[in-house]
Amino acid sequence: HVPPPLSARAGSPRAAMERWPGWHVHVVEHHVAYLQLLCRAAWRGQWQAFPDPAQLQRAAEMMMAAFCCVMTMRGAADALTPVTLLGLRRLSPWLIAFSLCCYAWRLARNRWLRQEWFEFLWQFCLPRKWTQCSICAEQVHATPWRLAKMPCCGGELCWACVRRHAASVVDDARPEMRCPLLPCRSCLPDVVVCAALRRHQWSLEGLDPTGSRFRRKRRAYEKWALTCGLAESCSARVEDVVHCPREDCEHMWVLPRERRARKEASEPSTRWNPQAWSLGRYVGLYSPVVEDGNDLRRIHCPACDHHSCLLCGLPWGDGGEADSHDGKCCLEHRSRFPERSHRTKWAGAKPCPGCGVRIIRSSGCNKMTCSQCGMHWCWVCLADWEPAHYGC
């Protein structure tokens, strides 16, 4: 992986240096794959697969130089000279020492991080004892790093099943996260969910040293927990939580339930109601709730500057009378978005592999039974049901 001389690769040093980030990306991918092979060999006890220390040192130096070039902006290629690389190489021991000091300071402040390190190192000190997971029925090491003990019922299952259970609850937008073990249905503490995510971050299957995937999953879980907690709190105060209908926006409002009910009371419920017809609107059979000349159904999101309807969630539209929601009931305006209305109605549903009917899962495990054709199938992979699909 030694690049050819600059004069042979390009006509100018700048053009040559602009190609270096792409070359170093290839080097990083190669060495990361090489490091994964070494980790798997160490886990299986195949120590003869390890190279000599000189090769490992050279691989580390190549990865350091590659990361430096990748993190450098393309427009600053003129500043990336061999002198700069040499200076970064000389500063690398000090940077490593500074990083270790920062991590030691973080380790001293966080008790949960010390506990995780203790459980990670303790698994190598205990004798090899295997036990069966209560959900996926796989054999796992009976250590706190591999096996989770539920604080509510004392049941034991692998951390992978805890993570998959939490991910399914968040993806399906279920209102509560219960213990996956029966008959216990107590609420699962946040510390258990976060520990399951961190176990997956440092496992061989989902190794994520930078923590990018871990932070993304944790943000999704925190958003779900905030939404459910806010909905429960507002329900006790007779209020509703309103989300911005745009998929890439996370803004929310709190609205008194009686105000929303008053707006819904003026809306026709079926297409057979004359108020839902265009002719009925022109003859005065339908008129929305208006205050100070503004339609009270119209909401504006300050985060994404999007105007939409509070009741149907569709874009308000300001392109003209044909596209605007002004003066129209939600049924008439929804007829202009048939695909979106159908997608909103069946959001989160999956088709049965046997008959194609759409099914929405509210809670439970991955085993689904279609009431139409009686087929048993897996919710995750849509395959015919087998006990092994509990771990999908």
TrEMBL record:
EC number in record: 2.3.2.31
Q: What's the superkingdom here? A: Eukaryota
Transmembrane segment boundaries: none
State whether keyword Transferase applies. Answer: yes
Q: Which keywords does UniProt give here? A: Metal-binding, Repeat, Transferase, Ubl conjugation pathway, Zinc, Zinc-finger
Reactions this protein catalyses: [E2 ubiquitin-conjugating enzyme]-S-ubiquitinyl-L-cysteine + [acceptor protein]-L-lysine = [E2 ubiquitin-conjugating enzyme]-L-cysteine + [acceptor protein]-N(6)-ubiquitinyl-L-lysine
> A GO BP term, please?
protein ubiquitination
Q: Where is the RING-type domain?
A: 129-392
SMART domains reported for this sequence: IBR
- Annotated SUPFAM superfamilies: RING/U-box
Mind listing the GO molecular function terms for this protein? ubiquitin protein ligase activity; zinc ion binding
Q: Which InterPro entries match?
A: E3_UB_ligase_RBR, IBR_dom, TRIAD_supradom
> What Pfam families has UniProt attached to this entry?
IBR_1
**Record's protein name:** RBR-type E3 ubiquitin transferase
Native organism is: Alexandrium monilatum
Its ancestry begins with: Eukaryota, Sar, Alveolata, Dinophyceae, Gonyaulacales
